[in-house]
TrEMBL record:
The keyword 4Fe-4S does not apply. This is Peptidase M14. SUPFAM superfamilies: Zn-dependent exopeptidases (SSF53187). Residues 1-27 form the signal peptide. Keywords: Hydrolase, Metalloprotease, Protease, Signal, Zinc. It comes from Cytobacillus citreus. Coiled coil: none annotated. Pfam families: Peptidase_M14. Residues 42-395 form the Peptidase M14 domain. Belongs to the peptidase M14 family. SMART domains: Zn_pept.
Length: 395
């Protein structure tokens, strides 16, 4: 191709990228526009996270091990914190969306407890399980209190030259979107950048993609979590459980006027053994939907034990989804039991209101799963009870 033709093609791609408007279906973390200036100073910032993790490691006397697993696109550390030495592993991540912050606080509290407590429960968990936390995995987005990471399409093309004439992926944020202006500081929804093929290499023909198609591992944040997951597969054979901590907007429990405190789900891709899920047939032997439902039942039951309170106002998230580009969808196809935690309110419309109660909700749910896997009780639960968890409806 002649030089003028090459420049013309590249210019067209650049213009298209600058005008590209992403799809935002199931963008529960997207921030509503608000005039109100709501404080979020009570949430943990990146530098505080670093300090707190190493304090937990030191005070645990070797029970908690903190490592740098990778770097964000802007060069911030992505940490893993590991506690326990059991033969089943639970992987938990928070802040894949940088404006969804309660999960990070909950993870730090749990690491503090499991690393320092001499209670029989804590000892049993450390003996039976290995728990690996990835707190604030999208630290660049967290520092800006926004959903997306910080990365331009040009940077992706520099990392993957085969994409130099390719339009941006559908999850690229490059304009004004849900209260944030990405035009001068673009980024990606990292939670659409995963692929059930953990060895996938980006191909031009797979772009721009769509919400019901797999992602590409083009962001360093998704690459890092993928690599953590693969290393745990090599060590344990299977990542038994994967939990992903998020925020959502405001809903009520179906048939009531009770506001949903948190929504949960086991359902992010159709069962590969069904006609709808046949495109995932190569993962059919790995997929454990019943186990994912048992995990969610354990989570739900732990919160119902809190009695008639906000802690028991738990619903299902949307069902019958097909989101293989999410971490939950991709990892479930690799054999992990999964659950999403979606607490109510965004930082821009709810700030740090009810922070303590929402953090406690997440903690209680996580510990319900951890205890159930550690003592084996989760495997005895009836997966059909999942269908008795109420649905959510828009307020």
């Amino acid at each position: 191709m002649k030089k003028k033709q090459v420049l013309k093609v590249l210019s067209s791609v650049a213009i298209a990228a600058s005008l590209f408007v992403p799809q935002v279906s199931h963008a529960e973390g997207a921030k509503p526009v608000t005039e109100e200036n709501i404080s979020v100073n009570g949430f943990i910032q990146y530098e505080e996270l670093k300090k707190k993790l190493y304090q937990i490691e030191k005070s645990s006397n070797g029970q908690v091990k903190v490592e740098t697993a990778g770097k964000t696109n802007q060069g911030r550390d992505i940490f893993t914190a590991r506690v326990g030495h059991g033969d089943k592993v639970i992987l938990i991540q928070s802040e894949i969306h940088g404006n969804e912050k309660t999960g990070t606080v909950a993870l730090l509290n749990i690491l503090q407890y499991l690393g320092s407590s001499n209670s029989e429960d804590a000892k049993k968990i450390r003996e039976e399980l290995t728990i690996v936390a990835v707190p604030m995995m999208n630290a660049d987005g967290s520092e800006l209190d926004r959903r997306g990471n910080v990365m331009s399409w040009r940077e992706v093309q520099e990392q993957f030259p085969q994409l130099r004439n390719t339009l941006p992926s559908w999850n690229y944020y490059s304009g004004s979107l849900q209260g944030d202006n990405y035009s001068n500081n673009p980024g990606f929804d990292v939670n659409r950048d995963f692929n059930p093929n953990l060895n996938y290499v980006p191909k031009p023909e797979d772009f721009p993609g769509a919400t019901n198609k797999a992602g590409w591992f083009i962001t360093p944040e998704a690459q890092t979590v993928r690599d953590v997951y693969k290393s745990l597969q090599e060590e344990f054979g299977i990542v038994e459980v994967f939990l992903d901590l998020h925020h959502q907007n405001f809903y009520t429990i179906e048939g009531t006027d009770k506001e949903v405190t948190m929504s949960i789900s086991a359902d992010f891709v159709p069962d590969p053994k069904t006609p709808k899920g046949s495109k995932y047939s190569q993962y059919a032997d790995n997929f454990r939907f019943d186990f994912s439902r048992q995990i969610n039942v354990a989570l739900y039951n732990a919160l119902q034990e809190k009695g008639n309170s906000i802690f028991s106002n738990i619903s299902l998230y949307d069902q019958n989804l097909d989101l293989p580009g999410t971490a939950l969808g991709a990892f479930s196809l690799n054999g992990s039991g999964i659950a999403i935690f979606e607490v109510k309110g965004q930082t821009q419309n709810f700030g740090q209101k009810m922070k303590g109660q929402l953090v406690k909700t997440v903690e209680t749910g996580i510990m319900g799963v951890i205890k159930g896997v550690a003592d084996g009780s989760v495997y005895k639960l009836n997966p059909e009870d999942y269908d008795n968890i109420p649905n959510r409806v828009h307020k």
